Amino acid sequence: MEAQTVNCPNCGAAISSDASQCQYCESKLATVACPSCFGMMFLGSKHCPHCGASATQATAAQLSVLKCPRCKIDMSSVTIGTEAMRECERCDGLWVEAAAFEKICADREEQSAVLGLASPAPTHPVDLTSDHNKVSYAPCPQCGQLMNRINFAHCSGVIVDVCKGHGTWFDRDELSKIVQFIRSGGLEMARQKEKMEIEYQREQLHAEQMRSTDQDLLRRSFADEERIGGLSAARGLLKFLIE
User: Fold this and answer.
1) Long-range Cβ contact pairs of 106-110 (< 8 A, separation 24 or more)
2) What are the b/e assignments for 72-94, b being 16+ CB within 10 Å?
3) How far apart are CA 22 and CA 8, in angstroms?
4) What is the pLDDT at residue 128?
5) What is the Rg, in whole angstroms, of the alpha carbon atoms belonging to the chain?
6) pLDDT tens digits, 32-45
7) Rounded to an integer, what distance in angstroms lies between the CA atom of residue 109 and that of residue 9?
8) Confidence of residue 1 (pLDDT cuts 50, 70, 90)
9) Residues in contact with 121: Cβ distance below 8 Å, sequence separation at least 6, in sequence order
10) Alpha carbon distance 29, 13 (integer Å)
11) 60-83, pLDDT tens digit by residue?
């Protein structure tokens, strides 16, 4: 995506849209696509610098304060494209509600907004032995129940934390990886793979039913032969006794 010159929403300085931090006021920056003209603008801008359209902002009523399931601190409300979600400013994780994630998966414009989200490098060293980097089950920010860890589409290689009733937790960069997977045709390949597996299971079931039917017919044939043999023996014995 070609970089554009836009204004920092905090101090107004003109900077490149691919910057992750304002060089003047040092505010953390992320770019989103304008829902009207799809030009790039910084998250938090009140108006698009290209077409002047009002930026979509989530209200406090739309997004209640939730705790990060990793860091246990309050998450901030952000809007990516037209979808409102929560972000942890410490670990850069994202909480996306179920309906919003479904729209991102289906809408290329929303996907473009996700890919435009700048994710700056951590300002502190990453400790690979910390609890954040160990496999663990995280609680849903809304209901508190432990979420299921799922390989998205069963073949993407991106493991996300899912609460079926509320939404999905994405650790740093996981949402972007999933969007890249979708746009590379990953979902279609996953559907084709699932269809092939269902067809294979159907064929296996049919073959098993045929084997079961053949075995049943064979058992009946043996039973009939035994009955016929028994009748023949009885007739032979009766004939012997009479004669």
Assistant:
1) 107/81, 108/183, 109/33, 109/35, 109/38, 109/81, 110/80, 110/81, 110/82, 110/83
2) eeebebbbbbbbbbbbbeebbbb
3) 7
4) 39
5) 31
6) 656 556 566 666 66
7) 22
8) very low
9) 20
10) 12
11) 434 578 999 999 999 988 877 778
The 148-151 sheet, strands edge to edge? 76-80, 83-87, 94-97, 167-170, 159-163, 148-151
End-to-end CA distance of the chain: 106
The answer for residues whose C-beta is within 8 angstroms of residue 194's C-beta and 6 or more apart is 154
Predicted TM-score (pTM) of the model is 0.54
pLDDT at 230 over 70: no
The predicted pLDDT at position 38 comes to 54
Give the residue ranges of DSSP H helices in the chain: 98-106, 108-115, 174-183, 186-242
- Using an 8 Å Cβ cutoff, are 161 and 138 in contact? yes
Quickly list DSSP for 43-73.
Answer: TT-SB-TTT-PBPP---TTTS---B-TTT-S
Rounded to whole angstroms, the Cα distance separating 91 from 119 reads 11
pLDDT at 124: 45
Name the one residue in this structure whose structure tokens are 């729209």. Answer: 103
Tokens 């910057």, residue located: 19
Assess contact for 39 and 52: CB atoms under 8 A.
no
User: What are the domain boundaries of the chain?
Assistant: 56-184, 190-243
Read off the tokens for 140: 């849903």
Q: What is the C-alpha separation between 221 and 226, in angstroms, rounded?
A: 9
Range 86-92 contact pairs with CB under 8 angstroms and sequence separation of 24 or more: 86/141, 89/28, 91/132, 91/171, 91/172, 92/119, 92/122, 92/172, 92/173
- The model's pLDDT over 138-175, given as tens digits with 9 standing for 90+, comes to 999 999 999 999 998 888 899 999 998 899 999 998 99
The strand pair at 40-42 and 5-7 is best described as unpaired
